[in-house]
Amino acid sequence: MAGLINAAPVDKPEDYRNIFVYLENRDGQLQRPALEMIGVGKRLAQKVNEKLYCVLIGSKISEMADEAASYGCDMVLGADSPDLADFRTMPYAKIVEDFVKKEKPNIFLIPATRNGRDLASRIAVSCQAGVTADCTEIDIEEDTRILSANRPTYGESMLAEILCKRHRPQMATARAGIFPVPEKVDGSKCEKRIEKVKVDKSLLKKEIIEFRKKEAIDLTAAKVVVSGGMGLGSPAGFKLVGELAEQMNGVVGASRPTADLGWITRDHQVGQTGQTVRPRLYVACGISGKIQHIMGMKNSENIISINIDPNAEIFRYSDYVIVDDVNKVLPALIDEIKKYKKEHLKKAKVASR
User: 115 and 77, same structural domain?
Assistant: First the structure.
C-alpha cells in the first residue's frame, strides 16, 4: 500500500501540449519532407493555439535551424555533435526520446521516409505511444486536441481515420510529397535551443567506414513529371517519355507494372509503393489509372493524360485528355515543343537587337 501511495502521478493527456515535428536533413540540408511537416505542424498548432517545436539533429546545424525558423516554427530544439553528422538510429532515437519526455508534446509528426519510419517506431515504443504510419491527411479536433490521422487502406480504396484518445504523444508519419511546402515568413521570433551534445559511445557500436550514396531520382521536388505506363507497349517507349520530359525540363516517372517488369528502375515509380508527387504539370502516358497510381499523383496542379482507351480511369482525374495511341502522340508533342522553342528563341533574338 505504501508503494501505491508514494507512486509518481501518471501523466494525463491534458498535461501534454504543443506540436513536435522532426526535421530530417542530409549533408547539411533540410529535406523537402521536413519542410512539408513544418507546414502541417504549423496548421495544427494555429488551430489549437499552441506552439510548433521543430526537432533538429546533426552536425553544425545552426544554418538549418535558421532555415527552419524562416518557415514558421516557434522553437527549434537542436542537438549538435560531429557524431551526429549522419543518421544513426540509436543515438538519434535516444536524443528525440529525451526531448519528448522533457517537453511532453501532444502531437509528434515525422516524415514517412526510410529514416523517419525507423525513428518513429523506436520513439513510439520508448514513449509507450502508438504511431499511425503513412498518413495522407492530418487534422486536429479543436475542442479535444485529438489528432485525426488518415491513411489509405484496402489497397488505397478507402481512408481509415485513426484516433489516439489515451496515450501521448499522438504520433504519425506522413507520406512525402502529399503536403505543400509552406511559404517563408519572418523567423526572427523563433527561439532556438541548440545544445552541443556528447554522444554515448555505447550507442555508436557500429563503425561507419564509408557511405556509398546512390543518386536516386527525387520526383517530389520536380515541377514537371512525365510518367509512362503499360500503354507504351515496351521498354523502348520510355525513350519517348524521357525525350518529352527533357524538352519540358521535367523528370521521368513510371507506373508500378512497368517498374515490376524492369522496363525502368524502381526509383522512377509513382504511387502507393513509390513516390508521391504534386508537380505543376503531370503527364500520364499510357497509364490506365489504378487507384494505387492515382494516390501518388492526384494532387498535381495540372494533369494531362494520353491513353487509347476512351474509358481510362485516369481521365476522371485529368484536366486535359488525349484519346489516341501514346506512341503516335508523343513524337508529335515532342516535335511541336521543339518548334515552339525554336520560334520563341528566334523572336527573343530579334527583340534583343
Answer: yes
**In a shared domain, residues 153 and 17:** yes
Read off the CATH number of the domain in which 121 is found.
3.40.50.620
Q: Is residue 286 part of a domain?
A: yes
Specify whether 146 is located in the same domain as 70.
yes
Domain range enclosing 102:
10-203
217 located within any domain? no
Could you tell me the pTM of the whole model?
0.70
Burial string for 114-128 (b: 16+ CB within 10 Å, else e) reads ebbbebbbbbbeebe
| pLDDT tens per residue across all 353 residues of the chain | 344 444 444 578 777 888 999 999 888 888 888 999 999 999 999 889 999 999 998 888 888 988 888 998 888 888 888 888 888 888 888 888 888 888 898 889 999 888 888 888 888 888 888 888 888 888 888 888 888 888 877 665 667 777 877 788 888 888 887 788 888 888 788 888 888 878 777 777 666 666 666 666 778 888 999 999 999 999 999 999 999 999 999 999 999 999 999 999 988 999 877 888 889 999 999 999 988 899 889 889 999 999 999 999 999 999 999 999 999 999 999 999 998 888 777 666 656 55
CATH number, residue 233? 3.40.50.1220
Q: Are residues 199 and 252 in the same domain?
A: no
Provide CB contacts within 8 A for 300, sequence distance 6+: 225, 277, 278, 279, 280, 281, 282
- Please name every residue paired with 170 in a beta bridge, in sequence order, or none if there are none: 107
Same domain assignment for residues 22 and 142: yes
Same domain, 188 and 312: no
